[in-house]
Amino acid sequence: MTWTTHLPLIAILRGIQPDEALAHTQALVDAGFDAIEIPLNSPDWAQSVQLAARAFGDRALIGAGTVLRSEDVDLMVAAGGKLVVTPNTNADVIRAAAARKLVTCIGCMTATEAFTALDAGAEALKIFPAGNLGPGYVRALKAVLPPEVPVFAVGGITPENLADYLAAGCIGAGLGSDLYRPGQSVERTAERAHAFVTAYRSVQSDRTA
């Protein structure tokens, strides 16, 4: 399996309003992000997905997060989204997304949940909450997973600790409140986005040095 975007960092715009979605998505794309999720517990999330997908769908993978039901997959597709991110392991949701050939990043914590997700057709796994579990836990779980499965660390990831999770075997991370908080300025989003991109590229540069 391979991840489908150039930069394996997923921006999480939890709580964003539709009238803010385009400006913040633009800031993320300008910084180099090409995977963006708008969680379903955001105001009028489907409208935000639709706006972002129409404007940036040719440059970024746009979709929904906190997808809990298979019906939500249908709503996201209707809005133009192509990425499904979940906080949990729900085989029905995974199968619904796989049937529509969507990109999936499925939340799990244990080995049982991880293999349940893979058996249902998950393309990538989201270890959550990674910040509470720590890089050591992620490394131990990664050791029993098929090496070709893309694994993302999500929950508590910062530019300062991103390298620790990449060293533990993650290909990237999902970035929440340290990247975006509801109501923050576009300038703040751009600043945090550049900090994460710089941290990721620094690790890649060290690996190839």
What is the domain total for the residues? 1
Counting DSSP H or I runs of 4 or more residues, the number of helices is 9
Helical content (DSSP H or I, runs of 4+): 40-55%
Name of the CATH superfamily: Aldolase class I
The string of secondary-structure elements, in order, is EHEHEHEHEHEHHEHEH
The radius of gyration over CA amounts to: 16 Å
**Quaternary structure of the protein:** single chain
Please mark out the parts with pLDDT under 50 across 5 or more consecutive residues, or reply none: none
Strand fraction: 15-25%
- Looking at the overall shape, the CATH architecture is Alpha-Beta Barrel
Strand order of the largest sheet: 1-2-3-4-5-6-7-8
> How would you characterize the largest beta sheet?
8 strands, parallel, barrel
The shape is globular
How many β-strand stretches?
A: 8
Overall pLDDT score: 97
Distance between the termini: 26 Å
At CATH level 3, the topology is TIM Barrel
Q: Please write the CATH class name.
A: Alpha Beta
Coarse structural class = alpha/beta
Task: Give structural notes.
It is globular and about 45 Å long. With 209 residues, the chain is α/β, with parallel strands linked by helices. The chain has nine helices and eight strands. The longest helix has 23 residues, at 186-208. The protein has one domain (9-208): TIM Barrel (Alpha-Beta Barrel). An eight-stranded parallel beta barrel has the order 1-2-3-4-5-6-7-8, surrounded by five helices. The model has no long low-confidence stretch (mean pLDDT 97).
